Amino acid sequence: MVKTRHERDRLVHQMKKLTAELIGTFILVFGGCGSAVFAAAFPGVGIGLHGVSLAFGLTVLGCAFAFGHISGCHLNPAVSFGLAASGRFSWKELPGYVAAQLVGAILAAALLLFLLKGQPGGYDAATGGLAANGFGDHSPGHYGLNAALVAEIVLTFIFLTVILGATSPRAPQGFAGIPIGLTLTLVHLIGIPITNLSVNPARSTGPAIFVGGWALSQLWLFWIAPIAGAVAAGGLARWLQADDAKR
C-alpha cells in the first residue's frame, strides 16, 4: 500500500517512463519493420536496403526527441543493459524497462500482421517472415551462424558506443538523437544482408512470436549477441568516461 505522497509520485514517474518505453519501442518496430514489409520491395517504388535502414534511424531520431526527457529513450533491452553496465542506469529498473520494450514490440508486430492480412490473398507470417531476424537459410544473404553472431555483437557494440558517447555529460547537449539515429542507420546498412539486423532483442522478439518455427528457434542469438555487445560497450564507456563525473 502506498502511504506517502513521495511514494505515489515515484510510482507515477516510473509508470510514465515505462509507458514512454512501450510507445517508443512500438514506434521503432512499427516504423522499421513496417518499412521492410510494406515498402522495401513495393513494385516500382521499393525503398530497398537504404530506405529500410533510414527508417530505423529516423524512428530512433524522432523518439529520442519525443521520449528522451521522460525515459532516456532506450527502446531496446541491449541499450538498457549497456547503460546499466556503464553505471548510468539502475540495474533495479532493468526488468521493468525490458518488459515494457517487449510489450511495445509485440503490439507493433501484431498490428503489422493485421494490416498485412488486409492485402489481396492475405499474408502468412511463417512464409512472409514479417521482417524477422535470422541466419543460415533465413539470412537475406544466407550468412551462417558465426557471421551472424559476430556481426550482431560488433554492430551492437558500435551502436552502444555512440549512444554512450553522445549522451555523456561532456558531449554537446540536446543533439544526441542525431548521431544515435544516424549510427542506427549505418549499422543497418551493414547488417541487413547478414541477419536482417537486430541489435535489439525486443525488435527481434516481436516478429518472431508471430512467425514461430525457425524465427523462435533462432531468437536466442538475437538476445545473446546484442546484449554481449552492449555490455562490452558499457564496460568500455565506464573506463573511458571515468573522469566525467569529476569535472
Task: State the CATH superfamily name.
Answer: Glycerol uptake facilitator protein
Under the CATH scheme, the architecture is Up-down Bundle
CATH class: Mainly Alpha
Number of domains: 1
Give the radius of gyration: 18 Å
Distance between the termini: 41 Å
The low-confidence runs, each spanning 5 or more residues with pLDDT under 50, are none
Strand content: under 5%
Class computed from helices, strands and strand pairing: mainly alpha
Total DSSP E strands:
0
- Give the CA-based shape: globular
How many strands, what sense, and barrel or not for the largest sheet?
none
CATH topology: Glycerol uptake facilitator protein
Describe this structure in words.
The protein is an all-alpha fold. It has a single domain (5-246), classed as Glycerol uptake facilitator protein. Helices cover 70% and strands 0% of the residues. The chain has ten helices and no strands. α8 runs antiparallel to α10 (221-240). The longest helix is centred in the N-terminal third of the chain and has 35 residues, at 5-39. It starts with a helix and ends in a 7-residue tail after the last helix. The mean pLDDT is 94.
